[in-house]
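Example record

One chain of 169 residues, shown exactly as stored in the release files.
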Amino acid sequence: MSDQAEGRPVAASAIREHIYKVFPNDMNSNATVFGGMVMATIDRISLVVAERHSGRVCVTVSVDDIHFLAPARTGETLIFSASCNRAWGSSMEIGCRVKAEDSMSGEQRHIVSAYSTFVALDDDHKPVTVRPVRPETDIERRRYDEAALRRDARLKHAKALEKLRGGQG
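Predicted structure tokens for this chain:
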């Protein structure tokens, strides 16, 4: 826990509510919000969180999970929230949650969850070490612990692929 004590609080870099009003040009052929637009917005918002946390230019290394749980429709408002769940060396896991809101009734639905990995870069575009994350709430501590499980699964998966490919990449 000493790493956490020296780390940066989650709230210092989090984005609590990025609002996006859905218009007809945001629709796919199924008359629901185009998933690619949602994914691009998640990537941009998550990048801001990574750069706020690290104080460095960051790049997306992977999108580990993106779960579309429910559709959003024309006229709804999308509410994006993102935070840095954990950091290791130069990499950080950023979690993003998207809700759809009926602006008239105030009813909200959780529609997307995503987890991305970003790496901070120095002035020579090389990975640079970032400060740890300091979770302060029960939810932040749960996300911190879950991030370790997702990272372990990513590393195990990468090793299995490397073995299967015989080190050929």
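Notes: The chain is about 30% helix and 35% strand.
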